[in-house]
């Protein structure tokens, strides 16, 4: 019973506080129309209709206790206040969502593609590195570190140089039925090069292959087709030579549409002889070329001589390949396609010396003097189907005039022709010790050229 007055008192106090809150809220509501409009909206706070919405909101206004909110109409988004972002069509939001989704799909796809590409590139790089080591790249680096290094090209370098080995870049097909390409090195101001593929190299031959490669890099002579560099990142090593015409002395001699004057023939012979002298006498490691023949002597339109370098490959068998051993003179193993330009002891014993090149050069001189093919089954005498035997037999029987190019006989001093013919015969003797050295051959040819230059009739 004593608690009832207390309860009544508490109820009276609660009523007084409620009245005070209503009065305070009523005072705050009076300030709302200044934002939403001019009409007072009574408590509880309802949504206005028909107010002057242009004053504060871009859409619909709603009063709150002491404040207000703006709402955008249907299909519009934003905060609705004019002094804020206002209202805008919800389609932009949809576009943003689309771009967000597209980005979410695009970037993972690009990332996955990049990871796949990088993985594939790493596999290619690893494969090329393996081929580089397999083909003797590390051995070559070790042998060349003290000397001026030739260029070691990447597979990508040569692919770019040949337009991905385009057919239009093929110069000719070699005897191994492999295309030989003309390339252009962009980093060398578009320097033209010739790119050739080596034949298969067995793993046990890598050291020998690299030894020969280093020697060939050392041949730097104006009358040799110089080896610029190589690529060891491909299945078969690629060799890069300076570019030169593929027109050969053989083509000029046996082309009936052209005629080489006596002066040009002498100069071609002398320049070729000097190039061989360089191999025999002027290199730190003397080399027997072993493959001197007219088809390996390149000529441009001005008859500039470029002798093809010794080959890198070859084995001996009875069908025309010679395996050559290193001896105190030193020479390279290489492949020979015929025996027509070889001396007798090379054919019989399978061994070459510097006098072997002398014999082969004698056959080139015989071609220049007679214009005859190396092999002719129509020659009447037995044993003369080969040019060397045919020429020596004619000289011994004093039939020189009969076998020489008739236009030369008619136009050239017969004594000069005789001097070169006798030199040719000495080069073609069976016994190596009876042949002159290449230095002696080059000197005698130079003396004939000096006589020709001093002859008032020339």
CATH fold-level topology of the largest domain: Transferase(Phosphotransferase), domain 1
Computed over alpha carbons, the radius of gyration is 47 Å
Overall form: elongated
Indicate how many domains the architecture comprises: 3
User: Unreliable runs, pLDDT <50, ≥5 residues?
Assistant: 21-54, 314-340
Provide the CATH top-level class of the largest domain: Mainly Alpha
Could you estimate the helical fraction of the residues in percent? 40-55%
Largest sheet: 6 strands, mixed
* CATH architectural group of the largest domain: Orthogonal Bundle
Counted beta strands? 12
Query: How far is it from the N-terminal to the C-terminal residue, by CA?
Result: 158 Å
Tally of contiguous helical segments? 15
Structural class: alpha+beta
Which strand order does the major sheet show?
A: 5-9-10-8-7-6
Mean pLDDT: 75
Could you give me the name of the CATH homologous superfamily of the largest domain?
Answer: Transferase(Phosphotransferase) domain 1
Strand content: 5-15%
């Amino acid at each position: 019973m004593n608690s009832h007055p207390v309860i009544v008192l508490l109820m009276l106090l609660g009523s007084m506080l409620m009245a005070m809150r209503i009065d305070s809220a009523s005072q705050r509501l009076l300030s709302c129309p200044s934002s939403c409009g001019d009409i007072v909206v009574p408590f509880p706070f309802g949504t206005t209709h028909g107010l002057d919405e242009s004053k504060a909101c871009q859409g619909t206004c709603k009063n709150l206790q002491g404040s207000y909110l703006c709402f955008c109409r249907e299909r519009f988004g934003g905060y609705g206040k004019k002094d804020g972002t206002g209202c805008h069509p919800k389609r932009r939001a949809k576009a943003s969502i689309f771009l967000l989704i597209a980005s979410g799909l695009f970037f993972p796809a690009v990332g996955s593609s990049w990871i796949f590409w990088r993985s594939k590139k790493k596999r290619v790089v690893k494969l090329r590195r393996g081929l580089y080591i397999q083909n003797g790249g590390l051995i070559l680096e070790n042998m060349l570190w003290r000397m001026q290094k030739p260029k070691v090209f990447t597979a990508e370098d040569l692919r770019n140089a040949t337009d991905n080995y385009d057919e239009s870049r093929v110069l000719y097909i070699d005897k191994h039925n492999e295309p030989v390409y003309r390339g252009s090195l962009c980093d060398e101001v578009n320097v033209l090069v010739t790119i050739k593929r080596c034949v298969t190299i067995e793993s046990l031959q890598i050291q020998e292959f690299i030894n020969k490669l280093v020697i060939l890099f050392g041949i730097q002579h104006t009358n040799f087709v110089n080896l610029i560099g190589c690529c060891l990142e491909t299945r078969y090593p690629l060799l890069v030579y300076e570019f030169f015409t593929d027109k050969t002395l053989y083509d000029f001699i046996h082309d009936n549409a052209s005629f080489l004057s006596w002066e040009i023939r002498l100069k071609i012979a002398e320049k070729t002889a000097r190039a061989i002298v360089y191999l025999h006498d002027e290199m730190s490691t003397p080399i027997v070329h072993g493959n001197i023949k007219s088809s390996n002597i390149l000529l441009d339109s001005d008859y500039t001589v470029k002798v093809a370098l010794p080959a890198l490959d070859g084995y001996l068998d009875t069908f025309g390949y010679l395996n050559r051993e290193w001896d105190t003179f030193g020479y390279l193993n290489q492949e020979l396609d015929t025996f027509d330009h070889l001396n007798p002891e090379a054919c019989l014993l399978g061994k070459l010396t510097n006098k072997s090149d002398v014999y082969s050069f004698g056959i080139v001189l015989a071609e220049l003097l007679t214009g005859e093919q190396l092999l002719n089954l129509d020659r009447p005498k037995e044993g003369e189907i080969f040019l060397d035997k045919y020429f020596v037999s004619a000289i011994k029987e004093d039939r020189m005039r009969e076998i020489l190019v008739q236009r030369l006989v008619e136009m050239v001093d017969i004594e000069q022709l005789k001097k070169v013919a006798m030199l040719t015969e000495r080069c073609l003797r069976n016994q190596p010790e009876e042949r002159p050295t290449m230095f002696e051959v080059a000197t005698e040819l130079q003396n004939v050229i000096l006589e020709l230059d001093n002859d008032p009739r020339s």
